[in-house]
Design a protein that fits this description.
Layout lengths: L1 H28 L3 H13 L3 H14 L4 H13 L3 H14 L4 H13 L3 H27 L2
Helix pairs in contact: 2-3, 3-4, 4-5, 5-6, 6-7
Length: 145
């Protein structure tokens, strides 16, 4: 009977160890949206824009409500001169955060590169309005110090 209990105990230990190893490795595989975003930024800095796009897309899948994920996707697509994809992502960033002035500015640049002065002007005007309101707020705060 003792031999049987030792056998069960060792089997239990073996199964437990296997379970711990499997659960640890699966936790390492699952990473969050911010980690994908950080990896995307690292790839972007190394000018590996395709890899950056993969990471930013993974971040968007896990958290589709972060405008910065779409904004950076727009940057990466822009860097590859994939302007249509860039436009889609900048517009999504603006949809999530309408006051994101740099997205409006980048859209103006893209439309200018695409020889579409009408849209370029529209987006640039919106950028100027947003920047002007930020400057007014900044000046107003300085007056009340």
């Amino acid at each position: 009977m003792k031999h049987f209990n030792k056998f069960n105990f060792y089997n239990f230990l073996l199964i437990t160890c296997c379970f711990i190893v499997v659960s640890c490795s699966s936790n390492e595989i699952k990473i969050g949206p911010l980690e994908h975003f950080k990896r995307g930024n690292q790839y972007y800095e190394k000018t590996d824009f395709q890899a950056a796009i993969r990471e930013y897309k993974a971040a968007v899948v896990l958290d589709p409500m972060q405008e910065s994920f779409y904004f950076n996707l727009g940057l990466a697509y822009y860097s590859l001169q994939l302007y249509e994809e860039s436009i889609v992502n900048y517009k999504k960033a603006i949809e999530l955060k309408p006051g994101l002035a740099k997205a409006w500015y980048n859209l103006a640049l893209i439309y200018d590169k695409m020889y579409d002065p009408e849209n370029s002007f529209i987006y640039y005007e919106k950028y100027l309005k947003l920047n002007k309101s930020k400057e007014v707020k900044k000046i107003g705060k300085n007056n009340f110090k």
